[in-house]
Amino acid sequence: MRDKLLSALREAARLSAPRPPTAAAVAAVAGVDEAEVRAHLGPPENFSALLSYQAPVQPSSPAQETRERIIASAARVFAHKGFQRASLDEVAADAGMTKGAIYWHFKSKNDLFFAMLDSRLRQDTAPLLGDLHTLIRDGGDPLAALTGMFATSLERCTSDPEWPRLYLECLSLARDPDVRDRLSAFYDEVWALSRGFTEQLQAHGLTAEDIDPQVAAIFWTALFDGLVVAWLIKGEALELSRLLPTLFRMLWRGLAPATASPNDKNSSGDAT
Predict the structure, then answer these.
(1) Whole-angstrom distance between the N-terminal and C-terminal Cα of the chain?
(2) Angle separating helix axes 63-81 and 109-138, nearest 10 degrees
(3) From start to end of the chain, where are the E strands?
(4) Over 80: is that where the pLDDT of 224 sits?
């Protein structure tokens, strides 16, 4: 579809010259809805950059390699400037490309940011799956293993503080419907990964079977996000390495007292 729309864009530009083509004109040439044009090519402000860019045809410059190069440059520029202040011109300059090359792969700055976020998620969660398989294969103390895996994830995140700062900045922009929708999709992906993690633990008897995996996924994500935000505010004073073992023991054992009190019986309806 994108290739079809790019061809339609070039034809619409030829027909509308010297005026720039509109999204409606591109849609008319392609025989699709205007919304379809915007979904694949971004806003009309992108069109001039797209038209000026010629996609490389040599096999020495594959699209995936170019995409990853753009994402790496975006990570550097966004980390240095912040999400709102960074521009795609600066990303293009860092990558040694034209802005048209950026728009060839990403329809907007939001699109690029969430591609970068998805890449980082996969990078950080891949080792966890290996740790889980090791736990299932070798056995051992599930509490210690879960504490260690969670701690390792936090260490990866906090070792590069610009990443959580960027993410927090993005959360602050959730009034924008596009940002909110993309964050919702990102959370769905994170929850799906965590849900699968819980299901694996349950299947091998490493955690309680009566826990809803989706509820567990929401819980773990909320705990992780909350600790990262607290760390951004408090810094090393939070002492995550000291806090986590205590926190996980508390979670593992539950918050209820060892023996029920009379009030517990009354509240449950057991008392006469």
Answers:
(1) 70
(2) 100
(3) none
(4) yes
Distance CA 234, CA 228 (A): 10
Distance (Å, whole) CA 147 – CA 136 = 15
Mean pLDDT computed over 146-173: 87
Average pLDDT of the chain, as a whole number: 82
What is the per-residue pLDDT across 255-264, written as a single tens digit (0 to 9) for each? 777 665 555 5
> Per residue in 160-180, pLDDT tens?
888 888 888 888 888 989 889
Q: What's at 49, amino acid-wise?
A: A
pLDDT value at residue 244: 93
User: Which SS3 state, helix, strand or coil, does residue 107 take?
Assistant: coil
The answer to whether residues 78 and 86 touch, using CB atoms and an 8 Å cutoff, is yes
52 within 8 A of 98, measured Cβ to Cβ: yes
Residue 144, CA atoms < 13 Å, CB-side half-sphere? 4
Cis check for the bond before 18: say yes or no (omega within 30 of 0).
Answer: yes
- The verdict on pTM exceeding 0.85 is no
Q: Are 186 and 117 in contact (CB under 8 A)?
A: yes
Query: CA dihedral defined by 254, 255, 260, 261, rounded to 10 degrees?
Result: 180
pLDDT-based confidence at 271, cuts 50/70/90?
A: very low
Exposed, middle or buried: residue 116 (CB in 10 Å: 0-12, 13-18, 19+)?
buried
Q: What residue type is assigned to position 8 of the chain? A: A
State in words which class domain 56-106 has. mainly alpha
Torsion of CA 261, 265, 268, 271, to 10 degrees: -170
Among 1.10.1740, 3.30.70, 1.10.357, 1.20.1510, what is the CATH number of 109-253?
A: 1.10.357
Sequence spans of domains, the chain: 1-52, 56-106, 109-253
